[in-house]
Amino acid sequence: MKISRRELLVSMAAAPIVLRAQRRPARPTLSAICTTYFKYSHAQHIVDRFLEGYGWNGTWHHPPMDLVSIYIDQIGDNDVSKSRLQQFPTMKLYPTIAEALTLGGSKLAVDGVILIGEHGRYPRNEKGQTKYPRYEFFKQIVKVFEDSGRSVPVFNDKHLSWNWDWSKEMYDTSRRMGFPLMAGSSLPVTWRTPSLEMPLGSRVREAMCICYGGVDSYDFHGLETLQCMVERRRGGETGVKWVQAYRGENFWKAHQEGVWPKDLFEASLCRSHTLKPVRAGFNHVMPSVDEMRTLVKDPVAYRYEHQDGLMCTMILLHGLIEDFNFAARLDGQQSIFSTQMYLPMPPGRTTLANFFSPLVNNFEQMYLTGKETYPAERTLLTTGLTAAGVESLFKQQARYETPHLAITYQPPKASTFWRT
Amino acid sequence: MKRIAVVATVYRYLSHAQHIGDRFLVGYPRDGAWHKPDMKVVSLYVDQKPDSDQSAARAKEFDFQVYPTIAETLRCGGSKLAVDAVLVIGEHGDYKRNDKGQVLYPRYEFVKQCVEVFEKDGVAVPLYNDKHLSYSFEHAKWMVDASKRLKFPMLAGSSLPVTWRLPDIELPLNSEIESALMVGYGGPDVMDFHGFEAMQCMLERRKGGESGVTAVQMIEGDAVWKAGEEGRYSKELLTAALSRSDTPQGQPVVDGRTQDLVARRELPKLVKTPAAYFIEYRDGLKATLLMLNGAVKDFTFAARVKGAVQSTQFFLSPEPNVTYSACLVRKIEELFDTGKAPYPVERTLLVSGMLESCLTSRLEGQKRLETPHLSVQYRAPQQSQHART
Lengths: 420, 389
Known about the structure:
By secondary structure, chain A is an alpha/beta fold. Chain A has helices spanning about 5-20, 40-50, 80-85, 95-100, 135-150, 165-175, 220-230, 250-255, 260-270, 290-295, 355-370, 375-395, and strands spanning about 30-35, 55, 60, 65-75, 90-95, 110-115, 155, 180-185, 190-195, 205-210, 240-245, 300-305, 310-315, 325-330, 335-340, 400. In chain A, the strands form three sheets. Chain A has an eight-stranded mixed beta sheet, sandwiched between helices. Chain B folds into two domains: about 1-155, Rossmann fold (3-Layer(aba) Sandwich); about 160-315, no CATH class. Chain B contains twelve helices and 16 strands. In chain B, the strands form three sheets. In chain B, strands 9-15-14-10-13-12-11-16 form an eight-stranded mixed beta sheet, with helices on both faces. In chain B, strands 5-4-1-6-7-8 form a six-stranded parallel beta sheet, with helices on both faces.
C-alpha cells in the first residue's frame, strides 16, 4: 500500500492525540529497581546506558527517556552508584521500591520500571539456586500499580524468579493487569557470527546450545539462546514435556551413547572463538572426548522434549569454551544450521559488555510503544526450564516431567537480534 | 592431494606461521564444521630458530622435512620444483627496523628466491604472502610483476578484510563513497597495515573501482586533534566508528560505564601519541586512518556513502584461537585449490605503498607527499569475501 504525502501529513498530525489517548508520554520517565550497583554488575551495564547513552546504529544513542529514580537493595564497598547520582542529579536514590516508583509521593509517578535482580549477596537454597529477590521486588512494584490504579511496562532482567510458582505469578499478574512485560537474557539479541536468523516456520528436528558457566546462572543464558531460535519453528512454541539433567560421569556416558547428536555437538564447538587448546603449543585444535575430560571438570546437560516432539540439549562445558554456540538439524536441509551468539565480554576481551546495548534497545521500544518486542512467554518457559534442570539435578538426574511448562506462544515475525 | 611448502621467518607459538601453518596440519573451523584441507605440508623453511622454535617438532609429528634453504624447500631436496603451492609467512622474528620505523622482514627476499626456482624449473605455482608484500614499494611491485610475468596467482594481506564484521555489512559495488575513516590501534608498520587493509577492502568497492593514490600525509601528536577541529576528518565519522568499538579505554575501564569519547572530548586525554594517515585517492576520495593507542583496542570503520553513514567493526576474535586467521586460511586454501586469487593482490600492493609513503612522510617532517608511483588500479571482487557463513 502506498501512502500519499497528504495522508502521511494527516496521520503525523493525528499521532500526538493518539499517544495522549494511550497516556503514553513523548518522553517517558523510568525507575530502576536493582539489587546492587558495582562495576560490571547488570545494574551498572543497564542503568549506565540510560545515563551515558551507548553506541547504536553507528551513532551515539541517548535513549529518549529519563531514568529519574533508583532503588538499590545492597550498597557495598564496591558500589559505583554514588558517582552516577552526583553526575546525573536528575536520577534520585530512594530508600524503598515504593518511593522510587512514586518519587516519594503517593501515586505511581514513572512511565516504566526496570527490575534488575542480578548480582548481590543473597542466600542459596539446598538446590544451589541463588534466591535473588526478583519476585519480592516485583510484588512491591505491582502493589504500587494496584494502589495507584495504573500500571506501566516492566522489564525484568534475566529469568523471572528462581521459584517456578512465583515466576508464573509474575507473568500472570502482568497479563491480568494488562501491563507489558519483557524479560530475559542478552543472548537472544546480541550479535551472531555468522549473522543468521532461524527462518520462520523452519522444521527444526533437534537443537543444541553449548556454552559455559554454572547451574542456575549461565544455564539460563544457554536456554534462552536455544529458545529464541527454536520458537521460530513451524507451528510456534508448544511448551516442554520433560527435562533430564546429566552431570559428571553421567554426562560423558550419555555423550558416548549418543543421547544427543554428536554432529550438532561438533558443529556447536566449531562456532566457538574460545576453544581452549588441549595441546601445548597449538592455538586451535578440536579435542577428542578424552581430551575434553581433562579440561571440563563439571559438565552439565539439560536434555528436554517439547510438546511437538522437538528435542533440545543445553550443555555447559565450563573449562573448554567461553562462549554461546547454537546448532540445529532442520528437516530437508543437508547441512547443520549453526551460529554463535557473540558476547563481547569484559574485562578479558573488551572493556564494555556491549551485548547489553541491544537488550536495552529492545526494552526501550517497549517503554515508547507499550508493546513487547518479543514475548514474555519465552522467558517464562526458559525460567521454568532452568528450574526444571536444577530440579532434575537435585533429584539425582532423574527425568523431571514438566506438565506446568505447556506454554504456547508465537514468535515475533521480525528479527530482534543485533544486526545493524 | 596438493603439496604445500611453507617459507617462514619463524615458527613459534602464536607466530603467524604457527597459527596459519598449523591450520593446514590440524584443520580449522569452517561453516560450522571442522575442515581438514585436502593438502599436505611437505616442506618448511624457517629463517630463525629461537628457543621457542617449533619447526622440528611439527616436522616430526606431521611427517615433513625442514630444509636449510628456500630453494631446497620448494624442491623438497630434489632438483625440480616439487610442490603445488607456497605459503610465505614473513611475520614475527627478530629483524631490524629502518629509520622510517619499518621492520625489515625479508618477504621480498623470500619471494625472490621462490621466483628464481619457478624460473629455473620452468614451473610456477600459487603463492600466498602474509601481510604486506614488502616494506619497500619498489620490492612489492617487483613481487607482483613477477607473478604476472610468470603467470602464477598470488594473494597477500591481512585477516582484517576477511574476518567477521559487527555488524555484517558490505558496501555495495559501485557505492558512491564521499569520505571514509578507519580507527585502529597498535604500532606503526605493524597494526596500521591492518587498518589500511580493512579500509581499502571497503573503499575499493566504490564507483569506478580503485584508481590509486595521488598523495599521502602522516601526522602525529596534537596536530591530529587540530586537524579534526579543522574538519580534515569528520567528527561524525569518528563518532560512528567509535560507536562500534567494544574496547574504549578510560572511564569504561575505571568503572564500566559507557562513554561517548568524542562528545566528552576524552580522546586527547587518553591518546598520548595520536597518528593520522591521510590518503588522497586519484579519483578525489579522501580517507583517513587514525591510530588511537590508549583510546581503543579494536578496528572500526565508518564512511559516508551517498549521504548516509555506514559503519562496522572488523572483529579480531580473541587469542589464542584467533579464528580470524581461519577466515584467512580459507581464502589461501581457495587460492591453492582453484589457482585463482579470491581478491586482487593489487589491494595489498597499494596498501604496502600507502603505508611506506606515510612512514616516509612522518620521517620527512610530516609533510604531504605526492605519490605518482601509487597509480595502482584494480577492480574489487564481485562477491563479498569476508566471513559471513
